[in-house]
């Protein structure tokens, strides 16, 4: 039984490590979310993983943060079926929950076409996180107990 449980425990440990290393990216860094910024350059070289958060800072109502489908991205259309989510509050945070390519545009007319758009490739886990999880600093038995307790707490939270 112990052997059968081990892969699950290892998976949980890796999952916790991935959650612990989740990163918040401020889109455009100090420039924020606005016209005149090259967001492809901003995104290039960064690695995004499930659990990471994108923080968009801009003047309320001056822009939108619209996650769109690929066709919405290609055509700069953030309306109807192309729009997966949409916000213009001025402080939008998007936590990425699924791997794959995610597309964001500003849906104010003309802004997407003039550069307020970017696509990011999101991996299921952050590379490097699993390597550190493979050499825990505490004995495996202790880690298993901690993980089991955490999993139990998470299940209770999910139930209530
Ligand atoms: Cu805009």
Automatic annotation (TrEMBL):
All residue ranges annotated as the Phytocyanin domain in the record: 23-124
Record keywords: Copper, Glycoprotein, Metal-binding, Signal
InterPro entries, per the entry: BlueCu_1_BS (IPR028871), Cupredoxin (IPR008972), Phytocyanin-like (IPR039391), Phytocyanin_dom (IPR003245)
Gene Ontology CC terms, in alphabetical order: plasma membrane
Signal peptide coordinates: 1-22
Listed Pfam families: Cu_bind_like (PF02298)
Repressor in keyword set: no
Source domain of life: Eukaryota
One GO MF term: metal ion binding
Name of the protein: Phytocyanin domain-containing protein
Organism: Panicum hallii var. hallii
């Amino acid at each position: 039984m112990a052997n059968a449980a081990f892969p699950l425990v290892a998976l949980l440990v890796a999952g916790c490590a991935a959650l612990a290393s989740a990163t918040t990216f401020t889109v455009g860094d100090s420039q924020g979310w606005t016209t005149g910024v090259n967001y492809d350059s901003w995104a290039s070289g960064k690695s995004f993983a499930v659990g990471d958060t994108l923080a968009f800072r801009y003047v309320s109502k001056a822009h939108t943060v619209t996650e769109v489908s690929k066709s919405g991205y290609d055509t700069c259309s953030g309306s109807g079926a192309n729009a997966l989510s949409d916000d213009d509050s001025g402080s939008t945070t998007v936590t990425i929950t699924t791997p794959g390519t995610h597309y964001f545009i500003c849906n104010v007319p003309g802004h997407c076409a003039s550069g307020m758009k970017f696509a990011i490739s999101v991996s299921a886990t952050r590379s490097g996180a699993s390597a550190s999880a493979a050499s825990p600093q505490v004995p495996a038995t202790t880690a298993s107990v901690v993980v089991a307790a955490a999993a139990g707490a998470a299940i209770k939270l999910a139930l209530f």
